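Sequence, please.
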């Protein structure tokens, strides 16, 4: 069979015998492929690498920044302004000391800075694929032409025979040919932390899920122990890792709500500016009955165009988001993409993993059942402190000797180690066994001490087929040579007669109980009756229904160590000890966080690979769902069409036995229902869902590099409560962004109307130059806006539903506020302009007749300071607020006022900005008119309060 005749379809490799798989790929388990076959297959299948679909280049990203409609308008203004400057320069009409092209240079500098700012934010290339590529192995040991070779991972082809050993990262997907004690950690791919025991001899049903394909190995996973020979079946983009890479690249990033709103804002502002420019030019030409004043009208239009664009807004928003990220880092939320700060405030649904995020990722024993009594066990985490309670009362274990006997079994039949580091109790080993060691420690039964009292001399290890493990321990003799029974601890003394060994067995309660013929009651064993069996099984079901993971314990006295592989005969006629029920306990702070979600109109959803009973118990405990709520399991979800899932997705708050690939469908179904989704994940398989979600949240402790690179936010503590805290911060950021947009655009509208009024009133000349307008938009607007960006949160920020992510930037009265305040701003400024023009053109006036323009400039700037102080609250008067709760606003007002006065009274600055000296009377008039802005806004608050209307 040639390379060209290899199977074109996708054989279901886990359902095939080894020989059939070898035949399909025309390979040989002993000799591998020949160099010629390898070359042919490289030509056919390509190299074993993940391919990257073409994205935008850095130049394309940079050029895209200048397609913004506001920047395009500023570029046009700069070019026209440059043309007018050139004409004035050529004709000698420049004023003494005037610098040509300064307006053009200033405007283009702003355009370039804004373009660079956008580029820096957007050019953070997606590194998720790069992180995926790191999972491929650099070198592989392969059999080719009967020779053992080390080749680069990218040169592996389907049909190659590769060898695996402990510590190797697997370079391609493959079918096991043979294996010895092979365990592979597939957590990066499946999300399951425990290593998987692989078996070559199996053939599995076609519908077997990825995590249960025990006869296959996968690219990017790691060999924990053992060795194997593998037939390579898939390379490059056809591997399971490659499918994830393809999914990852197929998910298109949607603009965030803030980006959409800023686009809308730009469109409205530019359209409004062009309409006003047309009105001014047409009106001016009609009023002059010709084009005699066309240059003046063009200059007015240029100033209006510059005034309407909030040049400082992108920088203010960027700084605001950056400050938000700093505050979030202090709360253990690391923001990877800046717009995600504000996006968090729009979240309506949080889909969270259970283990480690809603829970502590620490198994804790909750209940112990012996001798027909169920005991509750108290304590948190792995700390070996807690009480045993019966009917709500603490009990002494001396009165219940069957409990210490079972706890000895917990400590001895165990491979984990409990240790204390820096005041924290931690476990080395399996979390389930760690819970048992901790349980024993609560009764003073320490594993180390019992290791010397009952040293291990043999064992029958746990396997997924046996579902149990046994440990054979020797009862040590004392140094005097007296019978060992005199030296035996009272906890186990009644388990022995003359035997020298004890076998402790733990595992599935049903399977252990079936091998028992006796039961340990009090301090002696007795025959196990059918009634007792039924009672034990009923209690097992009761524990499981509460979501507990239940283990059964038994023992057997032995006269000698049983031979290896005699587990089937040795693990018979056991003595039943009892049941232990444990749970990955909820994080104590999560209950309050879930309630805060509810109060804030956010729906929490649990998605877990765990059993549905456990998921329901945890969800009910935390308040995510009520008793009896529906649980959707992975198999049901798999059978659902996208339409069926969409119909159910708002009704289900618990998803159990879910594979990571199902998360993408859940996110998409929620989004089709109009929900704004935050999704957590930690495995490689979670990456497409994280990228699809409106906010992808990776785990900082347990998360893979791939999941972190695909996410918008990383939880440094893997804690659900941190998501809720970050959501609150997102709402505060969005509220403050709206606040300073109102502040900036209200003044911009006032500026535009004031400029437009000048030629219509026949005042002659433009009151503000483009350079002065840039100063206002960047400095007198920018500094107070930055101060408003750190305004503390309102008390009810998490007591209301999230605002719709699709709402307009002008929603909830923001647009009407801007227009209303802009008109008042203009009325005050035009009144001042009219007075100032007549004042400076009155007979006997000693100053510069152009000083009226500087009075308008100064009034507009100082009026904004009053606006900044008043806008801190929508409803409370300034005198009702603590002036030092945001000291940055006061600082910005003082600094900006001083800078503005420097433009009027410092000669070099006065010459550069084209301002004129004002006497004290003129400055006093400017300040008086400016104060009217503050008075008006405060009066509005009183009016709306009396009317009972809530101000935006």
């Amino acid at each position: 069979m040639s390379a060209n005749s290899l199977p074109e379809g996708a054989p279901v490799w886990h359902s095939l015998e080894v020989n059939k798989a070898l035949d399909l790929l025309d390979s040989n388990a002993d000799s591998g492929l020949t160099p010629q076959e390898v070359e042919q297959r490289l030509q056919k299948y390509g190299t074993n690498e993940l391919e990257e679909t073409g994205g935008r280049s850095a130049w394309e990203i940079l050029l895209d920044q200048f397609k913004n409609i506001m920047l395009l308008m500023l570029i046009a203004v700069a070019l026209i302004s440059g043309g007018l400057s050139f004409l004035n320069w050529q004709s000698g009409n420049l004023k003494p000391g005037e610098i040509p092209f300064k307006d053009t240079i200033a405007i283009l500098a702003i355009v370039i800075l804004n373009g660079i700012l956008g580029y820096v934010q957007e050019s953070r290339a997606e590194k998720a694929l790069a992180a995926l590529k790191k999972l491929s192995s650099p070198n592989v040991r392969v059999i080719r032409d009967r020779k053992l070779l080390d080749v680069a991972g990218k040169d592996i082809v389907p049909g190659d025979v590769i060898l695996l050993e402990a510590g190797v990262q697997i370079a391609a997907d493959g079918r096991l040919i043979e294996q010895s004690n092979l365990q592979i950690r597939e957590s990066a791919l499946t999300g399951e932390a425990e290593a998987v025991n692989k078996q070559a001899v199996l053939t599995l049903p076609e519908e077997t899920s990825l995590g249960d394909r025990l006869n296959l190995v996968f690219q990017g996973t790691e060999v924990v122990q053992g060795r194997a020979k593998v037939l390579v079946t898939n390379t490059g983009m056809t591997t399971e890792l490659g499918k994830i890479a393809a999914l990852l690249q197929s998910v298109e990033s949607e603009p965030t709500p803030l980006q959409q709103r800023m686009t809308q804002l730009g469109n409205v502002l530019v359209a409004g500016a062009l309409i006003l420019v047309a009105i001014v030019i047409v009106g001016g030409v009609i009023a002059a009955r010709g084009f005699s004043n066309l240059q003046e009208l063009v200059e007015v239009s240029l100033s209006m165009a510059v005034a309407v664009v909030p040049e400082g807004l992108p920088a203010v928003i960027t700084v605001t988001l950056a400050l938000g990220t700093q505050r979030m880092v202090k709360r253990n939320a690391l923001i990877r993409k800046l717009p995600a700060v504000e996006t968090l405030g729009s979240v309506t649904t949080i889909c969270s993993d259970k283990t480690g995020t809603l829970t502590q990722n620490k198994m804790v024993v909750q209940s112990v059942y012996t001798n027909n009594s169920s005991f509750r066990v108290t304590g948190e985490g792995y700390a070996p402190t807690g009480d045993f309670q019966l009917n709500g009362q603490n009990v002494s274990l001396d009165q219940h000797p069957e409990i210490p006997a079972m706890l000895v079994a917990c400590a001895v039949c165990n491979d984990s180690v409990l240790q204390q580091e820096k005041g924290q109790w931690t476990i080395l080993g399996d979390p389930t066994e760690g819970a048992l060691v901790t349980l024993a420690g609560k009764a003073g039964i320490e594993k180390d001490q019992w290791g010397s009292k009952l040293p291990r001399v043999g064992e029958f290890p746990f396997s997924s087929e046996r579902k149990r493990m046994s440990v054979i321990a020797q009862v040590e003799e004392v140094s005097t040579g007296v019978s060992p029974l005199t030296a035996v601890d009272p906890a186990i003394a009644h388990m022995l007669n003359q035997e020298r060994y004890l076998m402790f067995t733990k595992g599935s309660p049903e399977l252990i109980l079936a091998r028992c013929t006796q039961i340990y009651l009090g301090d002696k064993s007795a025959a196990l009756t059918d009634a007792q069996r039924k009672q034990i099984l009923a209690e097992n079901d009761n524990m499981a229904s509460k979501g507990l993971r239940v283990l059964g314990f038994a023992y057997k006295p032995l006269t000698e160590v049983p031979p290896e592989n005699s587990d089937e005969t040795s693990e018979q006629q056991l003595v039943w000890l009892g049941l232990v029920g444990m749970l990955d306990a909820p994080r104590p702070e999560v209950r309050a966080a879930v309630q805060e979600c509810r109060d804030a109109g956010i729906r929490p959803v649990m998605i877990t690979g765990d059993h549905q009973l456990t998921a329901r118990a945890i969800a009910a405990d935390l308040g995510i769902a009520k008793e009896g709520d529906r649980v959707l399991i992975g198999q049901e979800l798999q059978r659902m069409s996208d339409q069926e899932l969409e119909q159910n997705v708002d009704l289900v708050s618990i998803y159990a036995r879910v594979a990571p690939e199902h998360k993408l469908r859940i996110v998409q179904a929620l989004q089709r229902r109009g929900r704004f989704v935050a999704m957590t994940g930690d495995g490689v398989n979670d990456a497409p869902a994280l990228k699809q979600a409106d906010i992808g949240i990776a785990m900082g402790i347990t998360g893979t590099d791939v999941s972190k690179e695909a996410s918008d936010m990383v939880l440094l503590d893997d804690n659900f409560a941190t998501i809720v805290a970050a959501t609150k911060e997102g709402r505060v950021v969005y509220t403050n962004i709206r606040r300073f947009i109102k502040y900036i655009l209200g003044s911009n509208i006032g500026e535009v109307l004031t400029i437009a009024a000048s030629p219509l009133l026949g005042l002659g000349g433009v009151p503000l130059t483009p350079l002065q307008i840039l100063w206002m938009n960047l400095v007198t607007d920018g500094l107070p806006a930055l101060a408003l960006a750190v305004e503390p949160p309102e008390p009810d920020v998490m007591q209301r539903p999230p605002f719709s992510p699709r709402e307009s930037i002008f929603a909830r009265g923001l647009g009407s506020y801007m227009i209303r305040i802009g008109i008042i701003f203009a009325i005050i400024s035009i009144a001042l302009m009219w007075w100032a023009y007549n004042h400076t053109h009155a007979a006997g006036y000693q100053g510069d007749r152009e000083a009226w323009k500087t009075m308008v400039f100064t009034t507009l700037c100082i009026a904004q300071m009053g606006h900044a102080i008043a806008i801190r609250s929508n409803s409370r008067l300034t005198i009702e607020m603590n002036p030092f709760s945001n000291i940055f606003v006061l600082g910005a007002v003082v600094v900006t006022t001083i800078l503005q006065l420097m433009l009027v009274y410092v000669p070099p600055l006065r010459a550069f900005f084209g301002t004129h000296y004002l006497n004290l009377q003129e400055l006093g008039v400017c300040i008086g008119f400016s104060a009217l802005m503050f008075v008006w806004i405060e009066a509005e608050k009183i009016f709306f309060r009396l009317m009972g209307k809530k101000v935006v």
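Residues 720-760 form the longest helix (41 residues).
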